Amino acid sequence: MEHWIAPSILSADFSRLGEEIRDVLDAGADIIHFDVMDNHYVPNLTIGAPVLKSLRKAGLDCVMDVHLMVKPVDRLIGDFLDAGADIISVHPESTEHLHRTLTLIREGGASPGIVFNPATPLTVLDEVIDLVDLVLIMSVNPGFGGQAFIESSLDKLAIAREIIDDARREVRLEIDGGIKADNIRLVADAGADTFVAGSAIFGSDDYVATIAAMRNALD
């Protein structure tokens, strides 16, 4: 599956968010990772569906990969579907009925994803692998940008890759947390094909050079 680089807007300059997104897309990014936090499921508060809707109205037609770090999650799914989300990923802990939640996303016209924290076992994936288009492995604890990569995530990636391959479905395997040019090859070798990077891209002085370095490491 083609490699996708997904800058996380959690590390962008929110005072000029639309411009920041256009800049990283022009620099070679494939999709945009849209982090949503609620100060309940995670100890931070970010942005909601109105921001995504305003970006769509401003003409940004890129793939928006929405990661919902909120609880309860079902109430907000419709808002993000209406705002123009292409992918919506949820944590198993954020809903009482994961099957229903993933079905709600699919029926709303978006691709469903499931997210696993560092301490969340992959066992539930066997039960819903036929319902998802994306599996996201968190290589940091969710809630803050700029954290260091947790090495044990490589083992979890490899196991998730086996589950996906055994299911014989085209499911993307995404990694989020501490991804940089110097470790992106390592996580690709473990099975990832979609790479979320926040501070490594938005914190750099040259988006083109940073994304090119990641792409060269992958190639």
Low-confidence stretches: none
Number of helices: 9
Termini Cα gap: 13 Å
What's the mean pLDDT score? 96
The count of DSSP E runs of length 2 or more, i.e. the number of strands, is 8
Give the class-level CATH name: Alpha Beta
Helicity range: 25-40%
Strand order of the largest sheet: 1-8-7-6-5-4-3-2
Q: Approximately what portion of the residues adopt beta-strand conformation?
A: 15-25%
Shape verdict: globular
Descriptive account of the structure:
With 219 residues, the chain is an alpha/beta fold. It has one domain: TIM Barrel, CATH 3.20.20.70. It contains nine helices and eight strands. The chain has an eight-stranded parallel β-sheet. Helix 2 runs parallel beside helix 3 (74-83). It is globular. The model has no long low-confidence stretch (mean pLDDT 96).
Please name the defining characteristics of this protein.
219 residues; alpha/beta; TIM Barrel; 9 helices; 8 strands; 37% helix; 18% strand
Summarize this entry quickly.
The protein has helices at residues 17-26, 49-57, 74-83, 98-107, 125-128, 153-167, 184-189, 199-202, 207-218; strands at residues 4-7, 32-37, 64-69, 87-90, 111-116, 134-138, 172-176, 194-197. It has 219 residues and is α/β, with parallel strands linked by helices.
Secondary structure elements and their pairing?
Elements: E1 4-7, H1 17-26, E2 32-37, H2 49-57, E3 64-69, H3 74-83, E4 87-90, H4 98-107, E5 111-116, H5 125-128, E6 134-138, H6 153-167, E7 172-176, H7 184-189, E8 194-197, H8 199-202, H9 207-218
Parallel strand pairs: 1-8, 2-3, 3-4, 4-5, 5-6, 6-7, 7-8
Helix pairs in contact: 2-3
